Amino acid sequence: MSTAVKTQAALISADARPASGAWAADARADAANRLAAMGLPTRRDEYWKWTRPDSLISASADSAVVLDYEGEEPLFNDVDRLKVVFVDGVFDADESDALEGEGLEIERLADAAAKDIHWAKDLYGVLEARGQSPVVRPLAVHNTAMATDGVVIRVTGAVSRPVSLIYRHEDAGSDAILHSVIRLEEGAKLTLLENGPAAARFSNVLEVDIAKGAEFHHVRAQGRDHERQAITHMFSQVDEEAVFKSFTMTVNGKLTRNECVIDIVGDNAVAHVAGAVLGDGAAGEFHHDDTVFVTHDAVACESRQVFKKVLKNGAKGVFQGKILVKPDAQKTDGYQKSQSLLLDDDASFQAKPELEIYADDVACSHGSTSGAIDEEALFYLRSRGVPTPIATDLLVLAFLADAIEEIEDEDIAAEVTERLDAWLARRRD
Amino acid sequence: MAGLDELNVKEGVEEETVEAVKSLAGTYKYGWETEIEMEYAPKGVNPDIVRLISEKNDEPEWMTEWRLEAFARWEKLDEPSWALLNYPEIDFQDQYYYARPKSMEEKPKSLDEVDPKLLATYEKLGIPLKEQMILAGVEGAEDMPAEGRKVAVDAVFDSVSVGTTFQAELKKAGVIFCSISEAIKEHPELVKKYLGSVVPVSDNYYATLNSAVFSDGSFVYIPPNTRCPMELSTYFRINAENTGQFERTLIIADKGSYVSYLEGCTAPQRDTAQLHAAVVEIIIEEDAEVKYSTVQNWFPGDEEGKGGIYNFVTKRADCRGDRSKVMWTQVETGSAVTWKYPSCILRGAESQGEFYSIAITNNYQQADTGTKMVHLGRDTKSRIVSKGISAGKAQNTYRGLVSMHPKAKNSRNYTQCDSLLIGDKCGAHTVPYIEVKNNSSRVEHEATTSKVDEEQMFYCRQRGMDEEEAVALIVNGFAKEVLQALPMEFAMEAQQLVAISLEGSVG
Amino acid sequence: MLKINNLHVKLEEEDKQILKGVDLEVPAGKVHAIMGPNGSGKSTLSYVLSGRDGYEVTAGDATLDGEELLDMEPEERAAAGLFLAFQYPVEIPGVGNMTFLRTAVNAQRKARGEEEMSAADFLKFIRAKAKDLKIDADMLKRPVNVGFSGGEKKRNEILQMAMLEPKMCILDETDSGLDVDAMKLVSEGVNALRDEGRAFLVITHYQRLLDHIKPDVVHIMAAGRIVKSGGPELALEVENNGYADILAEIDA
After folding, report:
1. CA dist A131 to A144, A273, A296, A387, Å?
2. Chains touching chain C, criterion 3+ CB pairs below 8 Å
3. Secondary structure class of A222 (helix, strand, coil)
4. Were B294 and a residue from A71, A223, A261, B263 both cysteine, which residue would form a disulfide, CB within 3.0 to 4.6 Å?
5. For residue C79, what is the nearest residue in chain B, using CA coordinates?
6. Between chains, do C99 and B466 touch, taking CB under 8 Å as contact?
7. DSSP secondary structure letter of residue C98
8. Which tens digit of pLDDT belongs to each residue from C163-206?
9. Contact exists between C and A (3 or more beta carbon pairs < 8 Å)
10. ipTM for this prediction
11. Cα separation, C136 vs C213, whole angstroms
């Protein structure tokens, strides 16, 4: 694979960047310049206080074993959906459905980028660039400069079935950089599913522009490969009365950092972002970082952050969440919840739930807790005859329920719950 | 002391406390002030100034060396910029580091020339006219009969005189309470052992500067199994007459001892920003307990944001012994800029740290304040209650760290931090850091931000209170948990301060 | 005492007229009751008279002893002698009931140019009043209305009324959420305050409160206006036949 972050100098050189048509070449050149100016993250950066960027910026990806799934079907298999498959970061036309659907235009990024004129020009790297302040996210900039593929989707009406991005990992040393752009026009509605580990190392950027009254639902499952590393960024702009809802399930992965940057720019909009994590360090390192930044820049909007992490055997969880309420964003209702359940003494959790508020007529709050399993609840279950391991898993699932409830589609929520239950059951045996 | 008569009607107040408060009234003497009244050093800081300060304090060689080493380190440090504070760059060479009064020309010649709002403030605090003049820097006020001053300070708060007045009684109990400069000479073994042991010389930019140039401060030693027979207090005031800028406080509570320490601050400077960088170190041995209460009312700058104190303070308590306990309570209403994080190192098993804070910012004030609870020992407990109130164009930030280390088994933290906004031009921010490295510990953090409830306002006004009274009442209610943690005499003062600080914030 | 003349009120934020020409006069020493179905504008009237935000007076006026009420700030109306016993008294965490009352009493005294009440006098005063209303010391110490039962809240409203000694008392659905015993207690508190110099406006949905607080005049309010006035017998009529009959009679 071509695109490791080698040195900053290599980035600036136009040769290193994927061949593109005029608009994409400009966007990539701009990103390369921005990256050169801001530099790569270092361990000393406040924003990387608890997650080491080293292995994400090393010259090549650490190899990651390709797991066989013991017959377990990939998630969402039963959902009627438009499948878009990437294998180690490369689009697989044979495995994918035809790129067409009712109410939407969909195209490979590689194809869109090769054109000289494309609607994606107004979004590609644009929401990403806007999300660089007040905190820089150099790895997203790097992605904009170097992404080899992805999809661009424009939703104009009611879409008959979800779009499903499926990432497969077949090469132990793959280093994939994907970038997708989604535009929901006024009143449009889309459900986006993502699943699977894309590569040994995976950088993914999603830019999602949600126009007035449109709804975007996102459910992501970051597979159970325990050696892969992933850095994902989602940049979303949410306009008047629009809805943004995103849920991510993560079970294992040596290193995962999911950054979510949401800009609420229209009145009465809603933005929810949630995550459920089951981390077991028994099979190797596990480090999971949710970094969320929600900006309220409109009146009477609602935002929710609900993040739950269950950690054991040295697994590490990080939450950096922020709600920024700008001066005129009155009647903001912002809530942040970050909780961890530490199942043993080696697990650790670090959190920085931040509020920065410049408007007065607001109700913003956050709650963060960390602790062991509730002994009283456990005892209660045991006294009713439930064996400790099963009782523990019941409590773990109950703990994660808040986050899973953020999934709009009940069938998908049920499937996610089932999958988490199965994960727990496997570790019980 | 204003409101003293009201004490009798408050239920649940120990008669003892009331008596203690009454006895404190009327005892203020400017013990250490006159001594240094005339001392001047040129602007700027360099090894010569450090030596000069050391020399003026008649310090032994080891202390001079200690200061010089701190200065050498300070020169290598950069001023931190991570706090949510925005102020003009401080030229550290453009400051006076030793007792430098404001030039006499700038002083108002009479009360007529003094900003009437400033006078009104002192009047509200119950400070009589003479003291108002002194606080306002009216020329010649200090030459007026001593009687005027004596009465005056009763109204605010008194400190050093407690040390003086009760010296005999304290001595009988074995308690040492004196200025740090005196302690360096009289008790070098204690100072050598403990100074810089909680806040190391190179801890942070401001603490390092303080280590080099601190002019004075307080020293307390409570011997084993001794309950300090009275509350000890220091009243800091920055004005032309004394050096409040760089105090150093060292408190040692030996095994099984107890002390409650009060610190009050006011500053009358009116137009230029002034730097204040204090360090407080507390060492708490086995089964000992220290309560440290602060009412900080440094001059906050005027309504335009001109002047005021830049307050950079490092306060830390080291709970070294098992079952040791510390409680920080602060009411921060003053200063143009506050940078302050009183912290607890919970090293001993079953040690406890508590932090109760009210920070009020109005007009152009900025506060970035909070605490660090570092849990090192097993079964340690901490509790944080922070109430931030922001009005006018002010910015108010809670910044805190709760850290559960791997060996801090079965430890607990509870954090509640609430922000209240008054008006739509101010900001309230919360920046908590939570680090948990063992699973038998439990950390709970809750934070809320809201504005003053309109229903509550209407209810109060329907009962006849004007908007300012209603806001003050509601804010005092909002901050109740913290006010309750204060010793009674401070609580009364603090409640009044809340009202004063929020003046002009509504309507 | 209280004179309301052709009062028209709409909601500030939406174009909804609530009061459509209310005329009412309550003389000193009298108890007037306003009854009416839900949504008739009874509570709005009490809020507008006491100066709550969110309403816009589009026509008419209201005076208290000749003073124009509607131009005053809420606290000025309170100082002028207007008291509203709220239907839903608000909770104020952290503020002790006693502190609250003392602040209120002294604020009003100050506004009227009277001496503030000393702590000792206040204490004596409140203890006596509280005893009449069976309000114990604990309730006085607790934060204003926080954790109070429905009955306790209403008793607390009456206690405040007794302490503040207003001229014109408006009771907004004071009977809501009260059981028979509590209603009796509250009514006794109100009756004890009945006085030649003091007037009451009792707003209620049901007649039962008026068994305890006997009104001189009963008004029926509907669709933002007073549609019928009469003696206490009017309340009984409502009790027996409901509002429908009266409203139908007026429509006819």
Report:
1. 13, 16, 13, 48
2. B
3. strand
4. B263
5. B464
6. no
7. H
8. 999 999 999 998 888 888 888 888 998 999 999 999 999 999 88
9. no
10. 0.87
11. 24
